[in-house]
Amino acid sequence: MKKNILIIYYSQTGQLEDIVKNVARPFEARKEEYDVTYYNIRLKEDFPFPWPGDVFFNTFPESYLQIPREIFPPSDEILNKKYDLILFGYQVWYLTPSIPIISFLKSGFAEKIMKDTDVVTISGTRNMWMLSQEKLKVYLKNLGAKLVGNIALVDRHDNYTSVLTILRWLTTGQKEKSGMLPAAGISDEEIAGSVKYGNIIEKHFSSGNLSGLQPDLVKNGAVEIRPFLVRVEKVGNKIFTVWSNLIIKKKEKRPLLIKFFKVYLMAAIWIISPVVLVLHLLTTPIFWFKRQKQKTYLQGINLK
Ligand SMILES: Cc1cc2nc3c(=O)[nH]c(=O)nc-3n(C[C@H](O)[C@H](O)[C@H](O)COP(=O)(O)O)c2cc1C
Description:
It contains 14 helices and 7 strands. By secondary structure, it is α/β, with parallel strands linked by helices. The strands form 2 sheets. Strands 2-1-3-6-7 form a 5-stranded parallel sheet, sandwiched between helices. Helix 12 (227-249) runs antiparallel to helix 13. It is globular and about 60 Å long. The relative contact order is 0.13. Flavin mononucleotide is lined by residues 11-16, 56, 59, 91-95, 124-129, 166, 170.
């Protein structure tokens, strides 16, 4: 009997689509063993790409507060099949799984498709995905799905360079390098190389040893944790909670508050986050063991 593999994803730029397709290649190559199906999540009212600047910032409150939109239903074929393994591709918007992903997870279709099924999550983000993965772990647990592996691909440039290049990319569509700035997003080599993670997943899946999958993925570079960014995310989540609730509550002041939020966000990235970095470095000896423990936890698939 052939095993059924489902790849669920959403991708605006095509970056995440390329990644999940590369990871799925080892399954595609064994046609006699696997039936591979793709489910591209589609919103009834999708977001524009490239993003007009005001839409980009205006999407923040609903993104962060995980307010879903309506999606087109998956096909009957997908809804009525039992899958043996799901590769779940997602991206992060404002430190949270993106609105299209949340819309699927909250849709009712997610439980039908994912309940009692092994899931490998695959994210393609700038570099701040760690606490989003924690949010996603909770969704998967509540849906009755079993997380068996995680791959987190990021832009490996320093935090400031990647802010500049991603804003250029998302608001103009220009991914290629320009002037002093390198190309945006995850490197082409890493996207092409993600097929190796597919090989690792296939090996563990076919031998029935999924419990050994995540350590093997981590050993092969699938999950890098930068402790400083975890700290920034923790602070960011606290601040985003205040801003998002304020903007949602004060409906009539929304355009003005979004403008303030934009200024605040830029100040947070360029002024507050360097301060956090210095404090983080100064406290390294004190928190060394705690941070090592946290790193091991975030590289794993368990939920605290
Ligand atoms: C509105 C918005 C907010 C984003 N916020 C984050 C973020 O908080 N952390 C992060 O690492 N990447 C963030 N990204 C980058 C995305 O995770 C993703 O890598 C990028 O948009 C590529 O798009 P695609 O996966 O839809 O092809 C954001 C992108 C958008 C459009």
